[in-house]
């Protein structure tokens, strides 16, 4: 299981979010099962997801991100 602290770390470092925003997103994901992290152009989103998932795997966490089209 991925720790809350690690999720916040990934959101702050890989997605460059503020601590406050990272905490809000992590809490939303914890309570609801998922949360929107950022909205970015397709290739930039894909790169961010790959980077974050690589960091999670290398730290031994099963954290997952996905990409969806904007509404």
């Amino acid at each position: 299981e991925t720790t809350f602290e690690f999720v916040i770390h990934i959101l702050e470092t890989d997605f460059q979010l503020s601590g406050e925003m990272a905490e809000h997103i992590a809490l939303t994901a914890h309570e609801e099962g998922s949360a929107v992290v950022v909205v970015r152009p397709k290739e930039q989103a894909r790169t961010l997801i790959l980077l974050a998932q690589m960091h999670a795997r290398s730290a031994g966490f099963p954290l997952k991100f996905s990409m969806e089209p904007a509404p």
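The helical segments are 4-13, 19-32, 42-58. The chain has a mean pLDDT of 95.
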